């Protein structure tokens, strides 16, 4: 078993029309044994940016605190909130600085990028464990159920989905995918990020 699969877990982010969504399962495992059913893998960075982390649970908690520190330092130094594209490169450089002894995590971030006209546009990105960024206009997946997430998301995602339609799409994608993966599941949490608010919903899933 790969060290990336030891604790299990999956994350997916999707872009919509002036909104983004990010969702993860809630399982924490030790191989095939389930340890906890409330292990969240998505963390707020700002009001408009959320970061999902899959992989080794200890590295997830380490990077969560590390990024929180770096974002706070950026805010103090620049006197402004960090934008998703800037945060993506901060994630990349942080992971690449440890490339010879990497953190065993694959980050997925979702946010709303401010445009020159004053509006917002969806921004999603992912990275491998040494910080190679991957940008997408539709969806990004990571974790032990990533193969299944790719297949289901390609069938369900459509351009310009509104917040409610995006919630339904990302929820069905995640629940149907983790049902076919022994290392993910046991419920899920979904965040829908809009310019006005962040909607958080917890989903019930198969408990076996």
UniProtKB/TrEMBL annotation:
Coiled coil: none annotated. One of its GO terms (cellular component) is nucleus. It comes from the Eukaryota. CDD domains: proteasome_beta_type_3 (cd03759). GO terms for biological process: proteasome-mediated ubiquitin-dependent protein catabolic process. It is found in: Cytoplasm; Nucleus. Its main location: cytoplasm. Belongs to the peptidase T1B family. Component of the proteasome, a multicatalytic proteinase complex which is characterized by its ability to cleave peptides with Arg, Phe, Tyr, Leu, and Glu adjacent to the leaving group at neutral or slightly basic pH. The proteasome has an ATP-dependent proteolytic activity. This is Proteasome subunit beta. The lineage of its organism: Eukaryota, Fungi, Dikarya, Basidiomycota, Agaricomycotina.
């Amino acid at each position: 078993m790969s060290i990336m699969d030891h604790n299990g877990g999956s994350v997916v982010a999707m872009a919509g029309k002036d909104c983004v969504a990010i969702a993860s399962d809630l399982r924490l495992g030790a191989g095939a044994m389930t340890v906890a059913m409330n292990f969240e893998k998505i963390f707020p960075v700002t009001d408009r940016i959320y970061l999902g982390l899959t992989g080794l649970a200890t590295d997830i908690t380490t990077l969560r605190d590390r990024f929180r520190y770096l974002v706070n330092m950026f805010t103090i130094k620049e006197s402004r909130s960090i934008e998703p594209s800037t945060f993506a490169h901060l994630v990349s450089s942080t992971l690449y600085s440890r490339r010879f002894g990497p953190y065993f995590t694959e980050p997925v971030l979702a946010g709303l990028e401010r445009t020159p006209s004053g509006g917002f546009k969806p921004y999603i990105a992912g990275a491998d464990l040494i910080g190679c960024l991957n940008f997408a206009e539709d969806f990004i997946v990571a974790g032990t159920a990533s193969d299944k997430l790719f297949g289901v998301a390609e069938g369900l995602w459509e351009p310009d989905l509104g917040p409610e339609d995006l919630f339904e799409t990302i929820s069905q994608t995640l629940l149907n995918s983790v049902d076919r993966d022994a290392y993910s599941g046991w419920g899920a949490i979904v965040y829908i990020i809009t310019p006005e608010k962040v909607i958080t919903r917890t989903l019930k899933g198969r408990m076996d």
